[in-house]
Amino acid sequence: MKNLILFTFFSLSFFVAKAQTAETNQQDTTVYNHVDIQPEYPSGLKELTEYVKKNLKPGEDKGLVFTIFTVECDGSLTHIHIVKPLSETANKEAVRLISTFPKFKPGIKNGKVVRCYFTMPIRFPQDV
């Protein structure tokens, strides 16, 4: 009888632990368009502008490249795409530049850190 009770206890403990692990491993993989708090460059918009001016390699193009990317829960930037192209050279430079950004402060929705989209125009040249 004692062995049956111990067996039952350990069996139930295993299943409870397994269920808790499965529950915590399920992450929200949704990428949100709208969040309560937008993601942001670690030191703010002014520093982002300075970073772009310092690191953008100028070309012959004049105009805007509109980009969109995903800010992950850890602040990393993934899935960088061109929404409105300017030229092949400018488009590649915009993607290269964004891929060098440090991690952002992630977006927040309903009090939780979430994945979300971030749209950003890149101006060529950066003298304005």
From TrEMBL:
Keywords: Signal
Record's signal peptide: 1-19
Gene3D superfamilies, alphabetized: 3.30.1150.10
Superkingdom of origin: Bacteria
Domain TonB C-terminal positions: 62-124
Ranges in coiled-coil conformation: none
Keyword Disulfide bond: no
Pfam families: TonB_C
Protein name: TonB C-terminal domain-containing protein
Species for this entry: Mucilaginibacter panaciglaebae
Lineage, highest ranks first: Bacteria, Pseudomonadati, Bacteroidota, Sphingobacteriia, Sphingobacteriales
